[in-house]
């Protein structure tokens, strides 16, 4: 029996039946109650807590990532997301009272958050549990039925997600579909009420095109070339350590918020390179390919892609640290490159790996032009103690987020929206922003049948016209004047 299930093809027909079942569950009202939402967030929280070791083992199998990183950046953030949702959900669900104009007197109004319906969440491989389950928390908190499609590039994590959600969650409303391109294509052919995609821009375009056929709203969490500006007045050791933590200490650079390249001045660049070298050796030793604290490259395809970036004629001579590779173990050492040409391949696409180019400028203000000449990044970082330059940075750089004097840490702050702008994505989530991403803000107006004034009904007299003009003007004195016949 299990063999028949495992070989069953998930095609368009199966996807259609799945959506039909979930629509029936959603239509029953099951997901709308506060009690159901809380029970499912609690179940997900228990699932994560009870299976920490299994989760760490699966991620280790997929990425050879240090358990420390998994605990901090996946398990820890997921636990916090559950706690925030459980604490705040009742408040999030409350209708928001709003004022009404005198033209609708007597009346009252409110904005009621309602679930969108059945949502599709397509996740990424690099943080397979966090990037799968964090959106799921928002979707179920908002009262939706959900289909999760984990990434096939992290197969151990995908399999464990399917097993655990099947065991812990309400499967009449929350389902997992494993698979690759064919399964994703079958899912995208269906009509959804929201599609949430995390990944690259190329696939993001495919997702958005599919969604457009049904006028389905989307959240696209993409990426881009996230820059780091380093000023001369900063403590270089602190800056270097925080850059290293955000670059190589988060999945060896395989994360959308990873620093993609550095911009600094000609005179600071050599000092920064020396400081980065010193701190990298402290963290990962003289032979980083042997370090247990660095994740491996996820697949041979990604290894080949990064090798191509590094072996480019314009780039290979610019390596000032690292560059070692071990294809058999899919390992690439932390690599720093100085003054790579801006028209090189490594500067034209998101690196998503352990390579870090450094660009130099004469004046740090030129860095704004460098950043703004490309696509808008998911995040931009700045290290400075100059208050005026911080203000210029905030005013001149458009990105999904800006972080001053650190890297990556904004991702775990639930009171900040996380999302891109332009080519780095659309929509945002985390905390209440996740709830809002999967909710419709429904406008509701309540009017009394008392005070049904004849002014709005024909025949339209000169007096009525004067009163209407006064109402439009919004001044009570004018309204009384119009009623009394004053001009």
From TrEMBL:
Under the GO molecular function aspect, what terms does this record hold?
Answer: aldehyde dehydrogenase (NAD+) activity
Q: Does the keyword Oxidoreductase apply?
A: yes
Identify the domain of life. Answer: Eukaryota
Would I find Transport among this entry's keywords? Answer: no
Gene Ontology annotations for the cellular component aspect, listed alphabetically: cytoplasm
Q: Which UniProt keywords apply?
A: NAD, Oxidoreductase
- Source taxonomy: Eukaryota, Viridiplantae, Streptophyta, Embryophyta, Tracheophyta
Where is the Aldehyde dehydrogenase domain positioned along the sequence? 13-444
This protein is called Aldehyde dehydrogenase
**Similarity-based family:** Belongs to the aldehyde dehydrogenase family.
Tell me which Gene Ontology terms the entry assigns under biological process. Answer: aldehyde metabolic process; response to abscisic acid; response to water deprivation
Which reaction(s) does its UniProt entry say it catalyses?
an aldehyde + NAD(+) + H2O = a carboxylate + NADH + 2 H(+)
Q: Which organism is it from?
A: Lupinus angustifolius (Narrow-leaved blue lupine)
**Entries under PANTHER family matching the protein:** ALDEHYDE DEHYDROGENASE
Listed InterPro entries: Ald_DH/histidinol_DH, Ald_DH_C, Ald_DH_CS_GLU, Ald_DH_N, Aldehyde_DH_dom, Aldehyde_DH_NAD(P)
Q: Which residues form the active site?
A: 221, 256
């Amino acid at each position: 029996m299990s063999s028949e299930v495992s070989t069953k093809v998930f095609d368009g027909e199966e996807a259609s039946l799945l959506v039909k079942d979930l629509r029936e569950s959603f239509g029953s009202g099951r997901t709308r109650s506060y009690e159901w939402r809380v029970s499912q967030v609690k179940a997900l929280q228990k699932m994560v807590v009870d299976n920490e070791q299994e989760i760490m083992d699966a991620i280790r199998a997929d990425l050879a990532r240090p358990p420390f990183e998994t605990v901090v950046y996946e398990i820890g953030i997921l636990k916090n997301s559950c706690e925030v949702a459980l604490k705040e959900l009742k408040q999030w669900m409350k209708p928001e009272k709003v004022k009404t104009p005198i033209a609708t007197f007597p009346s009252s109004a409110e904005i009621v958050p309602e679930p969108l319906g059945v949502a599709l969440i397509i996740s990424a491989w690099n943080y397979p549990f966090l990037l799968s389950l964090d959106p799921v928390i928002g979707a179920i908190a908002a009262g939706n039925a959900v289909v999760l499609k984990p990434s096939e590039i992290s197969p151990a994590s995908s399999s464990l997600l399917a097993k655990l959600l099947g065991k812990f969650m309400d499967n009449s409303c929350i389902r997992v579909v494993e698979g690759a391109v064919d399964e994703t294509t079958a899912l995208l052919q269906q009509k959804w009420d929201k599609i949430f995609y995390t990944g690259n821009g190329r696939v993001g375009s495919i997702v958005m095109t599919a969604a457009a056929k049904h006028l389905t709203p989307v959240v696209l969490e993409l990426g881009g070339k996230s820059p780091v500006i380093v000023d001369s007045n900063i403590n270089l050791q602190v800056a270097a350590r925080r850059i290293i933590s955000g670059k190589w200490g988060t999945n060896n650079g395989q994360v959308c918020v990873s620093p993609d390249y550095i911009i600094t001045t000609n005179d600071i660049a050599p000092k920064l390179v020396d400081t980065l070298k010193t701190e990298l050796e402290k963290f990962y030793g003289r032979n980083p390919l042997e370090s247990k604290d660095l994740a491996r490259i996820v697949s041979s395809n990604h290894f080949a892609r990064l090798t191509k970036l590094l072996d480019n004629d314009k780039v290979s001579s610019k390596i000032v640290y690292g560059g070692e590779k071990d294809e058999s173990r899919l390992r690439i050492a932390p690599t720093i490159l100085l003054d790579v040409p801006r028209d090189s391949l490594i500067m034209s696409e998101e690196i998503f790996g352990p390579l870090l180019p450094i660009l130099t400028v004469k004046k740090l203000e030129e860095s704004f032009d460098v950043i703004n000449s490309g696509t808008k990044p998911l995040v931009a970082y700045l290290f400075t103690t100059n208050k005026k330059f911080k203000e210029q940075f905030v005013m001149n750089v458009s990105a999904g987020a800006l972080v001053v004097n650190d890297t990556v840490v904004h991702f775990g702050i639930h009171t900040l929206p996380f999302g891109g702008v332009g080519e780095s994505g659309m929509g945002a989530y985390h905390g209440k922003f996740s709830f809002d991403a999967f909710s419709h803000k429904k406008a509701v107006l309540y009017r009394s049948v008392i005070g049904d004034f004849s002014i709005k009904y024909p025949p339209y007299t000169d007096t009525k016209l004067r009163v209407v003009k006064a109402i439009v003007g919004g001044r009570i004195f004018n309204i009384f004047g119009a009623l009394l016949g004053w001009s």
